[in-house]
Design goal:
- The chain is α+β, with helices and mostly antiparallel strands.
- It has one domain: 2-Layer Sandwich (Ribosomal Protein S5, domain 2), CATH 3.30.230.10.
- It has four helices and four strands.
- Helix 2 crosses helix 3.
- The C terminus is likely disordered.
Length: 150
């Protein structure tokens, strides 16, 4: 079974650095799209391996969290995280993020009920649309487009 490149969700797309996670929740911009609270933060790349010739090469990394206080059983938390990852994987193309800066996104599941996949997918699609609207014209790559929109 083959999958297209756009629908893969490799490990490098997952946010695992504790410092970045703390920074997202301290400095990030929050938004809601039931059943998720979304916190996002753009930051510049700080690796020396980035070549100056590559424009619009920022990465999108995500974190999906389900509160233990609301869902006591690990089986429920894992189910919700699996459904959320799948919904993100199928809807990531809507984001269309093309910027030199990296974009880190934290999806926090806020409902106290276990939602079915369709509800999670609709919520994820709403959140991604909001993020796409917020980061549609970043200052690095789309300065001409941003001036036209004003």
């Amino acid at each position: 079974m083959t999958t297209t490149q756009g629908y893969k969700f490799p490990k490098r797309k997952r946010l695992t650095d504790k410092r970045l996670i703390d920074r997202i929740f301290k400095e990030g911009v929050a938004d809601f799209g039931y059943p998720f609270r979304v916190v996002s933060l753009q930051h510049s790349k700080n690796t020396a391996a980035d070549s100056p010739g590559n424009e619009c090469c920022g990465e999108v990394k995500i974190l999906i969290s389900v509160r233990k206080k609301q869902h006591k059983r690990a089986v429920e938390r894992n189910l919700l995280k699996r459904r959320s990852r799948e919904a993100f994987r199928l809807n990531i193309n809507r984001l269309n993020y093309k910027c030199q800066q990296d974009l880190n996104i934290a999806f926090v599941y806020i409902s106290d009920k276990v939602a079915d996949y369709k509800t999670i997918e609709n919520g994820m699609a709403k959140c991604i649309e909001k993020l796409a609207h917020r980061y549609a014209s970043c200052g690095d790559c789309h300065t001409a487009d941003a001036a036209v929109d004003l």
